[in-house]
Fold this sequence. Notes:
By secondary structure, the chain is α/β, with parallel strands linked by helices. 44% of the residues lie in helices and 15% in strands.
Amino acid sequence: MPAGAGDADRRCESGPVGRVTLQTIADRLGVSRMTVSNAFSRPDQLSEELRRRILETAEELGYAGPDPAARALVRGTTGAVGVLLTDSLRYAFTDDVATGFLGAVVDELAPTGSALTLLTSDGHSGSTPARDVAIDGAIVYSCRPRSAAQDWLLRRGLPLVYVDQEPVPGITSVNVDDRGGARAAAQHLVDLGHRHVAIVILAPVDEAAGPAYPERERMRGWLDGLDTAGVEPTVATVARHTEDDAETAARPLLARRPRPTAVLCFSDLLALGVLRAAERSGLRVPADLSIVGFDDSPIARRSDPGLTTVRQDVAEKGRLAATALTETIRGARAGTAPQVRHHVVPTELVIRQSTAAPDRAASRPGS
């Protein structure tokens, strides 16, 4: 037992005379103190009915709950797992794909009783969340290469799972089939007859490190599909993943002669920016310009016209990530070597109203 653990155990499960403790609740219900403790810290160990009775009794008696710091010392765990994001925390609450992923992670973690802590690379007042926050493990989610925060998690030796990251030996990773999905999108345009195609993609945050893994894989997939028809695309990059930046990048593309008849976009959000630029340029979608997104987020279904896109199963990605991290943490506690896996979630081309065969007149030189 760690030094001080006995004292911590007493702080966690007992208290001054007259104070409601775990033992008070156990005596009222005729169960063991450990059973009551599990209702708070290991809910998956109890039936729903028994846990409900314990929690109702605790509330009736006015029990404040085990002291979190003492409980962590006793168990040797924090009861929290992290999700590392490169961008600001606002991204987690405003991006449809990120919120869908995090929601699936939370749902999968719920039976374990683990809390979710969001971490970013942004440190304030000397604080570095990835270095300083107490967690049992972390999901590294769509972070740019050479992230200092990611390095801190590795140096701490925490159980990790990579999501939308370059797979590395020794760490379980979860990716979608970015390359296959992008290839299907490009082939769809080629089959429709498009030969003047543009691509709108995120610019590398770190030029030395190059593009992040999803950007690189999607570019490879697009080129796979376009090369079959001898199409050399025009590429425009955006510094920020916003609709406004995509619209700004699309304007010079749509002013080119010959003008592209189709645009492949890194995400549905960027595709909406291209759609807005087309409308403000007097172009009809899809009669004058076909647009393809990626993700099949809710905005793809709400757009007018409906957006042709590549569907990724965000919920499955979150479920796999949370399950893998839980297993890795349990293995670390037991002192067993992690079973490293590389999960690849399939993608699917979803054809809606934003793509059609090109208007031949629109793609002629001088048009």
